[in-house]
Amino acid sequence: MNTLPKSPFPPALAVFLDNPVRRLLINREKFLRNMGVKEGDYILEVGCGPGFFTEALSSIVGEKGRIYAQDIEESMLHKVDRKIPSFRYRNVIPILCNSSSLGLPGGSCDVVVCANVLEEIYREGELKETVSEVDRVLRPGGILIVKEHRFGGTAPIIKESEELFISIGYEKVLEEKTFFSYNSRLLKRC
Question: Is the pTM for the entire model greater than 0.85?
Answer without folding.
Answer: yes
